[in-house]
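Risk mitigation, structural track. In case the binding assays with WT7 fail to produce interpretable data, a predicted complex structure has been prepared as a fallback.
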Amino acid sequence: MVFLYGMDYEVFTVNCLQKTANIINLMLTAFLGELYMSKLKSVTHTGSVFAPSPEFLNQANLTQEKLNELNWKAQTDYTSFWGELALEYITWDKPFTKILNETNTPFYKWFEDGQLNISYNCLDRHVAANPHKTAIIFEADDGHVTMVNYQELLAMVCRFANGLKQIGVKKGERLIIYMPNSIEAVVAMQACARIGAIHSVVFGGFSAKSLAERITDAKAAYVITADAQERGGKTLPLKANVDEALQILGDKSPIKSIIVNKRTQEDCHFEKAQDIWWHNLVKDQPDTCEIELVNSEHPLFILYTSGSTGAPKGVQHSSAGYLLGAILTMQWVFDIKIHSDIFWCTADVGWITGHTYVCYGPLAVGATQIIFEGIPTYPNAGRFWQVIDKHKVSIFYTAPTAIRSLIKIDASLPKQFDLTSLRLLGSVGEPINPEAWLWYYEVIGKKRCPIVDTWWQTETGSHMLSQIPGIDKMKPGSCSGPIPGIMADIVDESGNLVKPNNNGYLVIKRPFPSQIRTIWNNPELFIKSYFPKYIANGKYYVAGDSAYLDSEERFWILGRIDDVLNVSGHRLSTMEIESALTLHPQVAEAAIVSKLHDIKGESIFAFVVCKGTACPVGDKAHELSKELVKWIIKEIGPIAKPDEIRFSNSLPKTRSGKIMRRLLRSIARNEEITQDISTLENPAILEQLKKEV
Ligand code: WT7
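Fallback model:
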């Protein structure tokens, strides 16, 4: 398909045959410990390239010249590249003398003899410069708005930090934060940073059982929570889950106190011996609090994430290196202008995106940002667009899954709002399919706003691959290339670069400041997961994604290594098939899982959500199935055609918007559902998904 557009911006229509007739012998199953030889079918990609406007470039933080300079510096003098940036962008109490210590690989240390405080860098230094500048515009679920400026936010953080100290919280101790997206959640995180305590935020949609698991692993002594949370007009309990988690832990509970913020009017169970109301804790506290100096490598936080198997892993981040990644990407990728931008990252603080681009990045650069409590579809699917209009948002960062579901519900809603304040759009979390990209670009960005498709992970702490807005031409679905200083490449198992258009492992070859330091309490698993011996002999950071570079050196992410299917010896990416399906005019969303097959090894099972309200049944469903099979044969080839297609009104997703693939796999395979479905946003969908047409 070739997209043709008007003359108001430059469009390069490229019809490139990518991955042509390659038969790649690639061994991608190292994570499973087995070796499969696979042949990759050639895939034809047709796409347009979109150039950002000269107006954007004229005002951009990074000009082509500056970018070249940065890249050159990183290539020629890697450690001073980072050292100079760390001195320029971070306020140090004691500057470092060593930049990078690589003696105990892969436990790298950055700026190790430097001392700083993260909360000072996020608050005090801006209060000194501009105390009344708005730091946070909080948009509650019901539309109520609360604003705090930098001075007020600092005072809130200090009072809460003093309260924590008063109840005995010590530097290095762990606190679980189990709160809704709120100013208070940011205050709690910043207060921990101020006193050198380590936070571990657990997303409010996790169950009591998951919470208990994380409390135990982190050996946390405190939980900070709220009575309940407001989401989509519903009041959902939080404190009750904490109580239940403690009940599960029984005598083994390491928790000394629970601090409870009163968010709603609901009653909640309260026990005088261990529960403390937030408002009582801060009531008589002074609004200044001395910072605790920490070393650069002091753990700022632990954030649990799922691996391919078993229990969640506690990803441990550093202080200075992490902060540097957050600041630089706010400057380079989000092109932040602190005097004029209203920045909005829609992520919840429970995820890495909410850590880096809600709690730390925007504050560290002194920006004004929106924090949103609600969901994109409440009170209707125009909520995002309404909030952009209401607060004159200029930088908007969200996930493709949100975009796709809003298109499905009502693609015409944005027309009702004034979106002219927008100047930059961002996407994160999964590859964005070209159709959603184009809608985002045209309907939301009005063809004026560059889109940065940012690839990164909980483990990388900040963006790794992205367009540099104003400079890089955009090809929908690709996240362009590494940002300055990130030595990303695509290699085979021996660590050799793979040729353009051939799949391989996405690796980062040199240590970088914002990377994961270890898995909490499990250094062996850290090495095994991210520096596995069977890829380049453990020399590189292995992201766990397969990807390829096109002939123009653009990165295309194919998906997690563990989401790769093997059908009749052909290796296929679930994301690739999904993207092809969503190009079909009737398809809003699709998820591909595999089903065990006697002859082929695995067969492809597709779950499809159609546009509009009606989900096809009976003959209509059969007809559409046939058509989609033909479509896939046309888009990718016969090897990628689904054996079964099931239609439903929506897909099972976590509250952060990730499709629950393992759950779909169990449904496709008619297995009993054993996985935790407590974070499922829409549990009612399960019955429909189980039904054959
Ligand atoms: C995995 C990391 C990074 C914050 C949110 C997710 C996938 C992430 C992209 C993108 C294609 C992407 C990768 C990665 N991913 N961003 N722009 N294009 N895929 O963090 O839960 O740690 O997941 O998300 O597969 O490995 P996470």
